[in-house]
Amino acid sequence: QVQLVESGGELVQPGGSLRLSCAASGLIFSIEVMGWYRQTPGKQRELVATITSGGRTNYADSVKGRFAISRDNAKNTVYLQMNSLKPEDTAVYYCNALRTSAYYSGRYYPKYDNWGQGTRVTVSS
Question: Over 90: is that where the pLDDT of 60 sits?
Answer without folding.
Answer: yes
